[in-house]
TrEMBL record:
Name of the protein in question: Polyketide cyclase
Keywords: Signal
Pfam families from the UniProt entry: Polyketide_cyc2 (PF10604)
InterPro entries (UniProt xref): Polyketide_cyclase/dehydratase (IPR019587), START-like_dom_sf (IPR023393)
Signal peptide per UniProt: 1-20
Coiled-coil annotated residue ranges, if any: none
Amino acid sequence: MLVFVLIGLAVLVLALLAYAATRPATFSVERHLRIDASPEQLWPLVGELQGFNRWNPYARKDPQMRGHYSGPPAGAGSRYDWDSSKVGTGSMTLTGQQPGRAVQLQLDFLKPFEAHNQVEFLLERAPDGGTTVHWRMHGPSNLIGRIMGIFIDMDRMCGRDFEDGLQNLKQIAEARA
């Protein structure tokens, strides 16, 4: 009887691995929100890491997060490293920007699992003077990530945080505008 149970478990594990191997090798998450502020008013909150951390939903999840800024205060090479028992350990480095329009970041997680993703913020001016802010993240999905993706929807999990963050940004920016 035990042999049949072990064989059954082995078949299930192999089926899970085979199914995971057929899943996409990359992932993408995107959310956007219209904010009643101009791209110029939003830029200090989106284009600079210290401004971003004022509305960063992950920093708000752990007020005890330890962080360190390095490199230039703004622009390419600006970097933020963090360590948190609630949201993990990692860094983000500003890799490019088009002032008032877009920011590109390299996002590297070390804990709870290693991941290397690209993040982009796009500021799209609306005819009425407001701005639609797009928050995008994409990256590779290794076999472990694909297995996790069977049980955890990355778009739903990260998307909720992106939505919270954009609401935080909206609240701060509209209070300033």
